């Protein structure tokens, strides 16, 4: 992995470098551990995805297994006192884990710090989760549709699903739902969803007053226009994680196409931590009511 954090139970992604690591830890214990007078210090941190301890390799370029100028993080399968406790099930479900290990579909215990953090994040940053969903999918849902999706997420206790991580919350909000209606919802005019729908007889994309970039989906006759979301798939290339998910666009029983959507956890992390963000009180009130 090419990112780290220093605290369990938060969503933060810090690019791995000597400078960033020193700024975040001060180069002090419990993150930096001296094993002996002749041994090189071991640098620990926390995995941004699964909250397990990781070791940073290559901060000292003299380490034999480091690639020059490309430090990276890897899991350590034991507790690191003062940094993080090791959770085997969370490791096996982590997109950064060794792909040779089997992944099962077990759920986090209710007391899981990661699960509780995901719940708090969805409640306190629901407007930012919606924004990330809208930009990645090209679908702008109204409050009623979003409230329904969040209610299903709550009832299914999706924060306890090991497949849910800090960085894929916008997509996991809709995973496992029945087909979601697009009728009278808005889609990006120059997006793939609008392109597919514009070619269907009986579907109209009408202008809206609040945005010149989006259009509202309406029909001239009864048509069941919906979308579905497939399981997000992680990809790690050169230590960098991205998520890919399939967005199905449907009219009645016919799926027009599956659109491959790519998201970047680092981008989503920046959205969540943005200082200049203007809260959407309407969406935050919905989250506060449903996730009280």
Shape: elongated
Percent strand equals: 15-25%
Given the structure, what is the number of helices? 9
Distance between the termini: 35 Å
Query: Uncertain regions: pLDDT < 50 for 5+ in a row?
Result: none
Q: How helix-rich are the residues, as a percent range?
A: 25-40%
What would your notes on this structure say?
With 292 residues, this protein is of the alpha+beta class. The chain contains 9 helices and 15 strands. The strands form 4 sheets. Strands 8, 12, 13, 14 and 15 form a 5-stranded antiparallel sheet that branches. It has a 4-stranded antiparallel sheet with strand order 3-4-5-6, with no helix packed on it.
Per-chain topology:
Blueprint: E1 3-4, E2 14-15, H1 18-25, E3 32-33, E4 42-46, E5 53-57, E6 72-75, H2 88-93, H3 113-124, H4 126-137, E7 139-140, H5 143-155, H6 169-172, E8 180-181, E9 186-188, H7 192-198, E10 203-207, E11 214-219, E12 225-229, E13 233-237, E14 240-251, E15 254-263, H8 265-272, H9 281-290
Antiparallel strand pairs: 1-2, 3-4, 4-5, 5-6, 7-9, 8-12, 9-11, 10-11, 12-14, 13-14, 14-15
Helix pairs in contact: 5-9
Descriptive key words:
four-stranded antiparallel β-sheet; five-stranded antiparallel β-sheet; 2 domains; 9 helices; 292 residues
Please give a quick description of this structure.
With about 290 residues, this protein is α+β, with helices and mostly antiparallel strands. It is built from 9 helices and 15 strands.
